[in-house]
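for ur thesis appendix - Glutathione hydrolase proenzyme. copy paste whatever u need, i formatted it the way the template wanted (i think)
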Amino acid sequence: MPARPVRLTLAVLVTGSVIAPMAQAAPGGPPEPPKDAEAVGSGGAVSSVDPYATQIGIDVLRNGGSAADAAVAVAAALGVTEPYSAGFGGGGYFVHYDAKTGKVETIDGRETAPASADEDLFLEDGKPIPFDQAVTSGLGVGVPGTPMTWQHALDKWGRKDLAEVLRPAEQLAREGFVVDETFREQTADNEERFRAFPATRDLFLPGGELPEVGSKLRNPDLADTYREVAKRGVDALYDGEIGADVVKTVNEPPVDPAAGREVRPGAMTTDDLRGYRTIDQDPTHLTYRGLDVYGMAPGSSGGTTVGEALNILEGTDLTAADKTQYLHRYLEASKIGFADRNRWVGDPEYSEVPTEALLEQDFADSRACLISDDAVLPTPVAAADPKQPQDCAARTTDGAEPYEGPNTTHLTVADAEGNVVAYTLTIEQTGGSGIVVPGRGFLLNNELTDFSFTPVTPGEPDPNLPGPGKRPRSSMSPTIVLQDGQPLLAVGSPGGATIITTVLQSLTGRLDRGMSLVDAIAEPRASQRNSAQTDAEPAFLAQPEAEKLKAIGHEFKKTAEIGAATGVERLPDGRWVAAAERERRGGGAAAVVTPAR
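the 3d part is after this line
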């Protein structure tokens, strides 16, 4: 039986907060702000993976800024402290709820392929080049969309100008931040390729060594970049000297000849930069348990895939189900959603994407009936045609799971007026292309490797092959949920293709299983993406339900960590809850303007 529409009135006790000790900065520098996994209060809320960025967002709100102002300021700060996940050289998706109009709107700031790109972008002699070589190259670099996203968001919903909201991040880059264990580990994981590029090596391997935990890392070049953009606007990138430096770096990768690394050049032009535009896009929308769920439409696959999976789950009372049944249904719905994602979702400017049909309840019902309580669907599940839903018939295919880099970052912001932002931004791989633009202090993305190098399913059309000016498919899933037209919660995560399953698991944990938002975010995760094995964290496999799932037929592959979600929720009394990770990526940072006593 379908569950009744939910009416959420959960009271939140601030007992789940995790407060990390302040790291000791280099002499004369400020300590790292504390990390709280949960905060409750009024005046607005900010949640991100980084305490410096969250504090900057709170300061903007306290000084009269809107949710959009704070979101841009947080994103710019993450370009300093989380440079391997996102930054000036990347792109992303910005989802905004406007308290005055009651509307949810989105900005597509995804990177684009240069005009020279075609379906053979990553082929040599008719065969795909090795993936790791595509990642660390000029070929994989898309035209950045992040700076224009910032400006566009401020134009639409901001109260402050770009120069003002960039100023705290400029100061942070100039003064430096305290290196934590996660930053050192990510640097170590990239050390070999970072050493191949002098500008990258000089910035992230100071003195030729890995940065020490507790030391201060400064980035004066990025501070200067932010200052130049504050003076000239984003044209400094799209029609100025910063852009000229980006094009030169893409086309002539500044690799150290002594590194012995082949780094293929790209073919980006200044015309590609001048021609870049963000896109105002209608969000995806569906109702789930009587709530309105809004997400990012294609080229992101987040809104359609999370939405299809929720529609599949709509017919099951997940509140009454035991935990094994709940997890089984969640995994199978994810599997089916990914089957349809891989077949149908790409850049809608270049191929027909049946967005509305993918989100029809009739289509979801035709897929939900494939799920059995005591068996697992064989993989890979074949896609179905959402425009012509058929009676249940489970089929398999020869398709492979497309790869998508695991890094990215997500921030969530709400202001005192009730405006809400869910913003996911990225440079793709951890460390992006590995190439810092000399003298500019930021890494270039490798987003074009999100394209399929060859068709995923032989003999079937693939909407995600490269093309001139095309945007690669993404899994970023910034999501806002409304109850009776008012914001209830917003959530998102990094994690490549696991973003979709992380958001889905967090939503169902909160909306169906009665967890607080911080507990739903902290819950052990598993990610099924239409493959024979399901990625699962050690804590997930340690649960007794994991053995029961194996008995049904689920197979698991251990992975250290999945995602790093953040979210905000509005309580019935109007206060805000900010929620972040307790442990993943060293713990996130949640804060409110005026904490509750």
